[in-house]
Specification:
about 300 residues, about 5% helix, globular, 2 domains, mainly beta, six-stranded antiparallel β-sheet
Length: about 300
């Protein structure tokens, strides 16, 4: 089967690091980097704006933003590590229909981590899912796609005792994996299964405790494809298995292993194959990064393939 687009619209309102800084004030000794926050994006039915949001930025500086009337916000910041939290009574609306909220879901964690580097623009993006169909190719990004979102809860670390990863034991980190396209194959010859291979993925780890993963793990994932399989069991349950990420595995700098999930109630089509409808899962997982050791725990979330 060829690549197929899922019937929802995945909107990435990016807080973008792009271009050469034309039109921006050059960083000074007190403001050494810049965060630029575009609040609009294109969708198949026209331009969309994030309205009513607030942004609380904490780190080397503390900045609270409540005026989001502009299409783009520019925030000069001292070099360092930060978190940004999306709050307020936000909604998405079309520029052609101001005051009319759109049906939308935030996929990204509300709190994201980022770093500001001297003389650089910094990129952060929040992902939203809109009801709709069709696709466009724009700089900000509107995708038709699926997602996996949930929480990683770390229970054990094996490796250097002074490893930064050791600090994550006992912590829970929200995450989202989004993808624009996928190839779906129905597999028989045994238990009936649905094999899903995605196009390039975008990965985010949220919250203050997610900063380490965003810095050291997320770069290995972004832009790769991954494969997962949903298998029907005779008793009406299903399992999620074979979670493989391109270029991530044995022999690579990063290895990620997710074991077969606990059985969950699922739906099947008339042929007995799992349907491409959202489902929740729980399994165990291990991150192995050479310099940091092995970090293991539970992997829970919701798969929304369309």
């Amino acid at each position: 089967m060829g690549l197929s687009r899922w019937g929802t619209c995945l909107l990435a309102l990016m807080f973008v690091a792009c271009g050469d800084g034309v039109g921006l004030e050059p960083p000074s000794e007190a403001t050494q980097g810049t965060l630029r926050l575009p609040l609009t994006a294109q969708s198949p039915e026209g331009a969309v704006k994030l309205v009513g949001a607030t942004f609380n930025i904490t780190g080397a500086q503390t900045v609270f933003i409540s005026d989001t009337s502009a299409d783009t916000l520019t925030v000069p910041l001292i070099e360092g590590d930060y978190t940004i939290e999306l709050g307020g009574s936000w909604h998405l609306e079309r520029l052609s229909a101001p005051g009319t909220p759109l049906s939308a879901q935030r996929l990204s964690p509300s709190v994201l981590a980022f770093s500001v580097i001297q003389g650089k623009l910094t990129e952060v993006r929040y992902l939203f899912k809109l009801a709709g169909s069709g696709g466009v190719d724009v700089g900000i990004q509107v995708d038709n796609g699926g997602s996996i979102s949930g929480t990683l809860t770390f229970t054990q670390h094996e490796g250097p005792p002074d490893s930064e990863f050791a600090s994550l034991v006992g912590k829970s980190v929200p995450f989202v994996i989004s993808f624009e396209t996928s190839r779906v194959v129905r597999e028989g010859g045994g238990p009936k299964a649905l094999s899903v291979e995605t196009g390039p993925i975008f990965v985010q780890f949220g919250g203050p405790d997610g900063a380490l993963l965003e810095k050291h793990v997320s770069p290995f994932f972004k832009g790769r494809s991954f494969l997962f399989r949903v298998t029907s069991l005779p008793n009406g349950y299903q399992v999620l298995s074979t979670f493989l990420i391109e270029g991530v595995g044995s022999g690579a700098p990063l290895d990620f292993v997710s074991h077969e999930s606990q059985p969950f109630r699922g739906t099947v089509d008339p042929g007995g194959y799992p349907e491409t409808t959202p489902f929740e899962f729980q399994s165990t997982m291990v991150f192995s990064l050479h310099a940091f050791g092995d970090l293991s725990g539970t992997f829970t979330g919701t798969v929304a393939p369309k």
